[in-house]
């Protein structure tokens, strides 16, 4: 897990930013990553702040925008990159792609691609942990759009009534694809207050302040671990690039240039860097050093992925069933 | 062998499997109530208590996902729906998650969510409380779908489901709950994908699922009196489908009737017909006959409801038609499920 010092949190955010920027460039330029990819560039503080407050054996489930939580939870970078390239040694064997990352050894239980379905899965996983009387907890990342799905409400209700140890982490980036929150949810209401309606504690946090996110998440995880039931965090943040894909979408008309710029000014990495400058005057050089290290690490992961074989076509059916016989003859 | 009612066989399977595997829990709306899902979950509640028999809120969508999450973490949820029609609210978790989990996360383990879904047919349950969704779930790779017709199969297929790592949907027609039959005392699993010849015969093959197996057996009994041999195949599981037992029988008889409790289009009856067409293109002496639901939702009014469901009489007619066998005096047959009375 990430070092929980402010410096450690910053370092992890820089790493994720480097990964995503390099992958976005490759995605755009090479057309070898052939899987719908949802980048978290600009919202790294939510994933890093929350996952740094977990233990390795706690479980994280997410929606489609999953690279940042996967990496922040300790998911294997090489296997993630190989998965994006559709290679056999990808974390899902080339069957899942960007939206179905998984790394059980790191406590990353899985990313899901239908809005909000990962919420109920996390509740079930957390319930299983509680049934076996472990002290582990589960967490689920989802966006503001997912809070409109019925299963969000059903999951909060069930988790509250059964006191299930799950932290609901809403990354509110204000847009569902191109639709603003104001067009989708009633004025004067908030997501975190809905959780209070189900009788669980909830908190609204500046999602671009990694230290604030970390502290809130630590309190939420502790609350769950102590057997008090669920907890919800609403983390306000912002996605810089297009909903899906590597590009900027400035000027297509659903948000203003000024709005995007104002959020780039609130970049979580720049912010953490500035906050550290007093105690670490050379923090900018430090970040540059890290970037160089990470670029080398990522470059190696990309080279590895490119050199890895694709899954053999003869194995197309593997994994559809636990035994090969169940796939019906002549049904390929 | 001692005899049990179908509902008792299910109860026994649950209790025996829960005793041997602490990871199994029962979950569903009202499973721990005094009725106990037609008596099938009462004994489990009595023996294992409410820590393993869990009443769930009316949230089919989330609860199906919760079952997937619990199964992903090593538990074996047995989820109960007292009306299968409510499973449409659970489709995302069953189809997009449970069925695909093993495959889309790289074949590192499945999610053994076992679902028991009760078909409410009868007593005017109507359009949204009568449906059997085996053909719907049978469409998706990654699931097993079974339609136990006998008490022995109700137990054996459930035992098998609770021991595998594949998500399974077991369709239980509530008209079968009071039927009795021999049931092994031990928890003996019956493998999926193996049909059963319920009646041997050499003139016509009737492939049936669930309730229709009993209607087909009654038709076979009646036609036996006319010297006509009807081979009744209880398919037992829709997916995997026992193509061999179907094809071997049709190769002998050259005539095929498929009797189902759902609609014809894109359904179980269509699949069986396609299997025969693909594998035995020259074997049929007459075109396939499918006895399925008429192309409308289930009605409520009693005469309409009676006309809606195919029964032994219609199977007899279809067999005779395929055999150019004239007519048989049909005594007024009651449907096997006609014993179902309300208020529920």
Question: How would you portray this structure in words?
Answer:
Chain B: It is an enzyme of class 1 (oxidoreductase). Chain B: This is Pyruvate dehydrogenase E1 component beta subunit. Chain B: InterPro entries: THDP-binding, Transketo_C/PFOR_II, Transketolase-like_Pyr-bd, Transketolase_C. Chain B: Residues 4-179 form the Transketolase-like pyrimidine-binding domain. Chain B: Keywords: Oxidoreductase, Pyruvate, Thiamine pyrophosphate. The complex is a heterodimer of chains A (332) and B (344). By secondary structure, chain A is of the alpha/beta class. Chain A has one domain: Thiamin diphosphate (ThDP)-binding fold, Pyr/PP domains (Rossmann fold), CATH 3.40.50.970. Chain A is built from 12 helices and 8 strands. In chain A, the strands form 2 sheets. Chain A has a 6-stranded parallel sheet, with helices on both faces. A two-stranded antiparallel sheet of chain A has the order 5-6. In chain A, strand 7 (202-206), helix 9 and strand 8 form a beta-alpha-beta unit. Chain A is globular. With 344 residues, chain B is of the alpha/beta class. In chain B, the strands form 3 sheets. A 7-stranded mixed sheet of chain B has the order 3-2-4-5-7-6-12, with helices on both faces. In chain B, strands 9-11-10-13-14 form a 5-stranded mixed sheet, with helices on both faces. Chain B is globular and about 60 Å long.
> Please, how many helices of chain B?
13
Write out the strand line-up for the largest beta sheet of chain B, numbering strands in chain order. 3-2-4-5-7-6-12
Biggest β-sheet of chain B, characterized?
7 strands, mixed
Radius of gyration of chain B: 20 Å
Helix content of chain B: 25-40%
* CA-based shape of chain B: globular
CATH topology assignment of the largest domain in chain B: Rossmann fold
Number of strands of chain B: 14
Query: Count the helices of chain A. How many?
Result: 12
Overall shape of chain A: it is globular
Task: Work out the number of β strands of chain A.
Answer: 8
Q: What is the CATH first-level class name of the largest domain in chain B?
A: Alpha Beta
- Percent of residues in helices of chain A comes to 40-55%
Query: How many structural units, i.e. domains of chain B?
Result: 2
Element-level helix/strand string of chain A: HHEHHEHEHEEEHHEHEHHH
Tell me the domain tally of chain A: 1
Mean pLDDT of chain B: 95
The unreliable regions of chain A are none
First CA to last CA of chain B: what distance?
Answer: 33 Å
């Amino acid at each position: 897990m990430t070092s929980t010092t402010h410096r450690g949190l910053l370092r992890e955010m820089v790493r994720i930013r480097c990964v995503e920027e390099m992958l976005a460039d490759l995605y755009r330029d090479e057309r070898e990553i052939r899987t719908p990819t949802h980048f978290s560039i600009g919202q790294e503080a939510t994933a890093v702040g929350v996952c740094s407050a977990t233990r390795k054996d706690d479980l994280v489930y997410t929606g489609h925008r999953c690279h940042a939580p996967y990496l922040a939870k300790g998911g294997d970078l090489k296997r993630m990159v190989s998965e994006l390239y559709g290679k056999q040694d990808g974390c899902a064997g080339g069957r899942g792609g960007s939206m179905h990352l998984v790394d059980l050894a790191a406590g990353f239980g899985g990313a899901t691609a239908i809005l909000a379905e990962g919420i109920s899965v996390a509740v079930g996983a957390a319930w299983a942990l509680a049934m076996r009387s472990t002290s582990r907890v589960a967490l689920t990342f989802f966006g503001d759009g997912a809070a409109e799905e019925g299963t969000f409400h059903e999951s909060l209700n069930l988790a509250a009534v059964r006191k299930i140890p799950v932290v609901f982490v809403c990354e509110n980036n204000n847009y569902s694809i191109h639709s603003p929150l104001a067009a989708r949810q009633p004025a004067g209401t908030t997501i975190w207050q809905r959780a209070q309606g189900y009788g669980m504690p909830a908190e609204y946090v500046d999602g671009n302040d990694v230290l604030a996110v970390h502290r809130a998440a630590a309190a939420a995880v502790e609350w769950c671990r102590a057997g008090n039931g669920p907890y919800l965090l609403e983390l306000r943040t912002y996605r810089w690039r297009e909903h899906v894909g590597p590009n900027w979408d400035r000027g297509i008309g659903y948000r203003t240039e000024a709005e995007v710029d104002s959020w780039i000014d609130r970049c979580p990495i720049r912010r953490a860097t500035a906050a550290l400058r007093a105690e670490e005057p050379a923090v900018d050089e430090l970040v540059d050093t890290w970037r160089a290290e990470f670029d080398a690490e990522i470059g190696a992961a990309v080279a590895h992925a490119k050199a890895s074989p694709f899954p053999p076509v003869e194995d197309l059916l593997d994994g559809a069933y636990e035994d090969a016989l169940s796939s019906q003859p002549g049904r390929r | 062998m001692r005899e049990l009612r179908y509902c008792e066989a299910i109860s026994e399977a649950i209790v025996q499997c829960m005793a041997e595997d602490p990871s199994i829990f029962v979950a569903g709306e009202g499973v721990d109530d005094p009725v106990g899902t037609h008596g099938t979950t009462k004994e489990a509640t009595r023996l294992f208590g409410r820590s393993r028999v869990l009443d769930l809120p009316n949230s089919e969508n989330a609860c199906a996902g919760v079952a997937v999450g619990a199964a992903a973490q090593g538990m074996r949820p047995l989820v109960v729906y007292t009306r299968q029609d409510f499973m449409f609210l659970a489709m995302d978790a069953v189809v997009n998650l449970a069925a695909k989990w093993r495959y889309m996360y790289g074949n590192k383990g499945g999610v053994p969510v076992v679902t028991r879904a009760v078909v409410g047919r009868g007593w005017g349950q109507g359009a949204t409380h009568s449906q059997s969704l085996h053909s719907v779930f049978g469409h998706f790779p990654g699931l097993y779908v079974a339609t136990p017709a006998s008490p022995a199969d109700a137990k054996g297929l459930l035992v098998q489901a609770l021991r595998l790592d594949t998500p399974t949907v077991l369709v239980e027609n509530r008209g079968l709950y009071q039927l009795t039959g021999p049931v092994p005392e031990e928890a003996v699993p019956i493998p999926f994908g193996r049909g059963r010849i319920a009646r041997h015969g050499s003139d016509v093959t009737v492939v049936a699922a669930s309730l229709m197996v009993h209607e087909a057996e009654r038709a076979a009994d009646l036609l036996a009196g006319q010297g006509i041999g009807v081979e009744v195949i209880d398919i037992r599981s829709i997916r995997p489908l026992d193509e061999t037992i179907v094809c071997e029988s049709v190769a002998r008889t050259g005539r095929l009737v498929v009797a189902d409790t759902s609609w014809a289009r894109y359904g179980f009856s269509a699949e069986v017909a396609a299997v025969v067409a693909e594998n035995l293109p020259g074997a049929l002496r007459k075109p396939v006959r499918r006895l399925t639901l008429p192309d409308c939702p289930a009605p409520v009014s009693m005469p309409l409801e009676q006309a809606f469901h195919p029964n032994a009489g219609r199977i007899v007619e279809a067999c005779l038609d395929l055999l150019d066998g004239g007519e048989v005096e049909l005594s007024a047959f009651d449907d096997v499920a006609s014993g179902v009375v309300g208020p529920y």
